[in-house]
Amino acid sequence: MASRATIYKTELQIADIDRNYYQNHSLTIACHPSETDERMMVRVLAFILFAHEFLAFGRGISAQDEPDLWQKDLTGAIERWIDVGQPDERDIRRACGRAKQVVIVCVGNRGADLWWSQLRDQVERLKNLTVISVPMAGAQALARLANRTMQLQCNIQEGQVSIISGADVVQIEPVTLLAPTLK
Questions:
Q1: If you average pLDDT over residues 165-181, what whole number do you get?
Q2: Going by C-beta distance under 8 Å and a sequence separation of 6 or more, which residues neighbour residue 145?
């Protein structure tokens, strides 16, 4: 019998001073049996960084043709495609062809550094691609916050993210490795 996804319920209070975005979100997150708490919480961080009323979790790990998160407009067109991890060049190009903006969020470790050094020259000309690296220590600290029911207060100011859960505070400063080129 196949293992089932673990369901997490999360209440987010987001105060993003950088984007002037202040909202509460109730999320239901399915954690695939092969997914670690660290990866799941980096998906939550990606939601926090790009929060929008139409941003939703995709099937991610369970479906090759869907991202971890996506934001569609009212016509169904994909505004933002967000993947967590280290997708290959072909998948990144395909996503860039399908969405107005593509964001890759990776965890800054040796594997990610090698992945990025091999991939950078091949993708840096994609005009709608953003690549963000989350420091390993930050991803590990986020994983320690993982709980089946979470209440998280999230503040973003000057690129620094503070996530508060009870008495625990996690500070993360994501690093932008590649930003979209201006048209």
A1: 93
A2: 41, 152, 163, 165, 168, 170
